Amino acid sequence: MSRAKTFDFVVAARTRTAAEILRNPDLLAAVLRHGGRREDLEKIQMYGQHAEALHQERSGAKAVGKVATITVKSMFAALRREHRKVLAVVRAVLTDMHEAGAPAADVGPVEQILVDETAVRRRLVVGKDGTIQRQAVRSRTREAIRAEIQKDAGALLALTAIRPALAERKVDQARLTQLRDDAQALSGQLAEKVVRKADGVGATRSTRGAAAAQRRVWVSTFGILALAAEEDVRIRELLADTTRRR
Fold first, then answer.
1. Is residue 120 helix, strand or coil?
2. In this prediction, what percent of the chain has a pLDDT beyond 70?
3. How confident is the model at residue 243 (pLDDT cuts 50, 70, 90)?
C-alpha cells in the first residue's frame, strides 16, 4: 500500500468509505463483527475531511497568489519604466549643467544619483589561473532594484538646485513624489508575496500531515475492512478506489 503525500482521490475514497459505513447500520455491524471499531472509522473520516478542507483552502490561496504575482510583476514593470524615463531627463539636465559650467557642489549630487548603487553581493568564481576568487555582482532582485528606485526618487526630491530644470522637462515634484511612493508601496507587495508563499508551504505540510494521519489509521483497519468485504459486496465496492495502483 503506497504512501499518501497529500490530498487526492484515494484520501477522498477512504473518507467516503468510512462515512458510508458509519451511516449504514448493516455495514457498520459487519465491520464490528470482525473486530473493527467505530472510533477508527470516525478518525478516518475526520482526518480525510480535514485534509480535503486544507487542500481546498490551499487551492484558493494559490489562485489568489497567482493574481497577486501578476499584479506585482505589472507594478514592478511600470515602476522601472517610469524610473528609466526620469533618469533620462536627469541625464539631459546634467549635460546642460556641464555645458553651463555649473558648480561642482551642484553637479556632484546629480552625478551620484546616476550611479548604479544597487546592493552588491559576492560570489565565488574560478579565475583564469585556476584560483578561487570573490567577484562582486550587482543584485538584480526586485527588492534591490525597488530600493534603488525609491532612493533615487528621494534624492531627486531633495535636490533644490535642479528642480526648475527638471520641472521644465516634465519631471516635477509631484511626479517624483509619485515615483517614490510607488516604489515604497511595492515593498509591501513583495513582502506579502513572501508571506503568502510561506503560508502555502505551511498549508501543504498540514494537508500532508492530515493525509498521513488518515493513512496510519487506514492501514491498521484495512485488514478488518477486507474481511467484512468478503461477506458484503457493498463494502467490497466501497474499497475499490481506496488503494493506489502501482
1. strand
2. 76
3. confident
